[in-house]
Design brief:
- By secondary structure, the chain is α+β, with helices and mostly antiparallel strands.
- The protein has 12 helices and 18 strands.
- Strand 3 and strand 4 form a beta hairpin.
């Protein structure tokens, strides 16, 4: 039996727009789903972080996107390697972009000291829509590229190592001379960068998507000043940024909402470069009276204003100067963003099902990183006090 559905022209237009919007959003899905590194700083053995296998928990489903873990916190004892692991993860920024690390000693102690003759192995797996891109490369102790391989849905696009050079000529039909130069590669240029700069690619090509994703990654911390990797090329004076962009009232509101602090700022003049607080009997510069935690919030505010164009964010020890309840509020703010956002922390107050799920809380220890549910045989439920279970020593990374 044939059933005829009748739609008005207006309803058809709305349906068409909805389908287009859904298709467009589906095409925009770009996520890191796995990362592994070997022989980097303190990681003598290969360590892998898998975000592609979330559990089937029924709560906090918004922290999972397209079957990938979108938000999480990494815990671990001092010296376990949380900072070094995050730095390794962001090596790809130094490798593929001009957004070089704003960390002076980044390439010092680059290779594990017990195995200096072996290269550092980096492995990334991305999901761009329905495509799975695996990108691997090896660098020597001076961070010079030595080997490189990229596959699309399990099929090699190119592979260059000590004994082999392969480039898919159907995808990239370059002339023999250029191919020979690329194979010899005496200046150690990345094949990805060569193809991005020398070969015409469609705007939806996976290499363009890879480049866009990496250029939109951001790592930062406030423990040792405003150190960061990605998104920007030079440090910024935070007060000047707030004043120049007419954000003084917005910043004042942010401090009140996130930390319940009441600041009243003097309306700045055109050339002012520092925020000034006003009181009944005088004024004083904000940076002279703000606590260390409030200075950290100012840095968070600055980067948060730029996170609408980020793909992947990692904040190292984000709550080092925060009250435990403030850290909770900051996490809620960050985890509402559309991009992937992860942090490292020692604050077990955040290890609660009211914020995340066991598969989004990770423990890094003994050269391994695992989600909580993989560290215990106990079934973890919403009503469980995860922090209490953690402090009781029930989670083991083996």
């Amino acid at each position: 039996m044939l059933i005829r559905l009748k739609f008005s022209v207006k309803k058809l237009r709305r349906l068409k727009c909805l389908l287009y919007f859904c298709a467009r959003n589906q095409m925009k899905i770009a996520m890191l789903i796995k990362f592994a590194v070997k022989n980097f700083r303190g990681f003598a053995e290969r360590i892998e972080w898998d975000l592609s296998s979330p559990n089937n928990y029924t709560w906090s489903k918004d922290v999972i996107s397209d079957g990938i873990i979108k938000n999480g916190i990494i815990y671990g004892p001092n010296g376990a390697g949380k900072t070094n692991f995050s730095l390794a993860l962001f090596d790809i920024i130094n490798h593929l972009t001009n957004l070089k690390a704003r960390i002076i000693d980044y390439q010092q102690n680059y290779v594990y000291v017990g195995n200096p003759g072996s290269g550092v192995h980096f492995e990334y797996t991305f999901k761009f829509g329905k495509q799975i891109i695996e990108y691997q490369y090896i660098k020597d102790a001076h961070a010079v590229l030595k080997q490189e391989r990229l596959t699309v849905d399990g099929v090699d696009a190119f592979n260059r190592n000590n004994s082999t050079f392969y480039l898919d000529e159907k995808q990239f039909p370059i002339n023999p001379s250029a191919k020979r130069d690329l194979r010899d590669n005496s200046n150690n240029i990345s094949i990805v960068n060569y193809l991005l700069n020398a070969y015409p690619l469609s705007k939806d090509h996976y290499l363009i998507k890879l480049s866009d994703f990496v250029n939109s990654m951001l790592w930062f911390r406030s423990v040792q000043g405003n150190t960061f990797m990605g998104l920007e090329t030079t440090p910024t004076f935070l007060d000047e940024f707030i004043i120049k962009n007419n954000l003084v009232e917005d910043f004042q509101k942010f401090l009140k909402e996130i930390s319940n602090q009441d600041f009243s700022f003097v309306k700045p003049q055109v050339n002012d470069k520092a925020l000034v607080c006003k009181y009944k009997k005088g004024t004083i510069r904000f940076d002279l009276i703000a606590s260390t935690g409030t200075h950290s919030l100012r840095l968070l505010y600055y980067w948060h204003k730029k996170m609408d164009r980020t793909s992947f964010v990692f904040i190292d020890e984000f709550d080092a100067f925060y009250h435990f309840k403030l850290a909770f509020e900051v996490c809620k703010l960050l985890f509402n963003l559309k991009c992937q956002v992860f942090t490292s922390s020692h604050n077990t107050y955040l290890m609660t099902n009211d914020l995340l799920r066991p598969d989004c809380n990770f423990i890094l220890q003994n050269n391994k990183i695992k989600p909580l549910q993989a560290c215990t045989e106990k079934e973890l439920r919403f009503g469980h006090n995860i922090e209490k279970i953690y402090k009781a020593g029930a989670f083991h990374v083996e």
